[in-house]
């Protein structure tokens, strides 16, 4: 941990944590996951605060929010109307991503406002850090793909950030339909950013994206592809 960065949010829980309820949840990041076997999608980082004061970090995508809402439709009907509708085209435009993120935050806030909702087993399962939070075909630690990544010294050097350097995040540009694309630049740009929550605490790449080893391996693959895009090894026509 460097500078003013807080320690990694723990995903190891004591017995009392398992029965504690999530009292609040804050979406503190939204990242484009590009080139996965599941296609391109936004992955939302959520900081959950439990009734015993402990906090942890989970990753969820819109389809998981949508599935949660479908399950709750018959249980909590009045919350259903607050959920942002599904969109099939241009759903990765940055302005739309920001709007959807705000709508999902409002939805979570209303969902956790009532004590009865916080005891709901469906909601507890959604916030569980023990379950696979991404539901992807992800690289598993010790697999041939992961071992190959470990042998790539250049990637290892890129992955190990020096003290004080920020994590490179991926930010989509408007006009994803490429009416006026930049030649050789594709539809994306690199931004140098850190994730900061409402209390002003800063998460580094390691803190914000290391809930478990399997997800680390998957995100390593995504980051490797992004580094290749940044270096010009991969372009979009």
From TrEMBL:
<dbReference type="GO" id="GO:0035091">
    <property type="term" value="F:phosphatidylinositol binding"/>
</dbReference>
<dbReference type="InterPro" id="IPR001683">
    <property type="entry name" value="PX_dom"/>
</dbReference>
<protein>
    <recommendedName>
        <fullName>PX domain-containing protein</fullName>
    </recommendedName>
</protein>
<dbReference type="Pfam" id="PF00787">
    <property type="entry name" value="PX"/>
</dbReference>
<feature type="domain" description="PX">
    <location>
        <begin position="22"/>
        <end position="134"/>
    </location>
</feature>
<dbReference type="InterPro" id="IPR036871">
    <property type="entry name" value="PX_dom_sf"/>
</dbReference>
